[in-house]
Amino acid sequence: MPVTPHSRAPSRRRGQGRQKWLLLFNCQAQGLANSLSVLCEDVDVEYHDPVSLQKHLAAIRERASTCDRVVVAPGLVDQLGAELAGRGNVTLVPSPLFFGYHPDFCDLEAGGRELNPRYGSGYNSVLAYAAFHHGMDESAALALYREDVYDALGYFDAWCAARHFFIERYEQFGFDIASRFIAWSRTGAFMHTPNHPKILVLRDLAALILERLGMDTVQTDAMPHDNLANGAVLPVYPEIGLRLGVRGSHLFKRGDAYRFASLRDFIAESFRMYRACGPIRASTMHAPVVARATALVAELR
What we know:
The protein has helices at 29-39, 50-55, 57-64, 82-85, 126-133, 138-142, 147-152, 158-171, 178-185, 199-212, 238-244, 263-275, 287-300; strands at residues 19-24, 43-48, 69-72, 90-92, 105-106, 108-110, 113-114, 124-125, 191-193, 196-197, 252-253, 260-261, 280-282.
């Protein structure tokens, strides 16, 4: 869908009534909605993630036609239907996606379904799968997690490529996020996983949305609850963290509990899942890095 400039919405002063906003986003919806509410007293935000959107699609389409503003991720805009999607009150906002801290993680599928370890969808290790693909045991797979392997796979170069993709993606939709990106990177690793940003990122994104639409914002450092911290938290491998100036580890927080697992345990759990599957293939996005890893592991065996 082509990107067009949005007119600045007139700000409503206290007493004039709040604007009704509808937010259709991915798993980041709750944090972004809370951030919009914290920063602007002039909006009431109703939010839906993809599961909720599908469940209540008819009612949501009806509400979208009467809301002052509909903020929607580009991948979900077609759910509104052509008539609603083309209305002037629709603002497209990409969801944060950044692999700079976690270049080893990928989407795998088998039998037409995503393979989801207990850490969450898309959190398969490229190296663990490459080792399994070649029939290596878990100890041999564990030995692959080292500097020369990361270097050969381009993991140390992932930050710059991911940063370029991130900033350019927002520019395509009219958001200048470069200065915010610099500030985030100075706080440490600002992503829990490649698709789960920390709440600081969502709060700053909310500020940019409100600024873009001409809304008055509250000048506060208050942060909403980081609900995505309840889910999986993937480690920045120590060798990668050292080069990026952030703390590294091999500790994986599960998506279903406040418990951490070691890299050895993560590999063992991944192997159990892969053994129970039929043929496995990588998603289109991650097929190139998986192919490089399987080729490299074949040489190292």
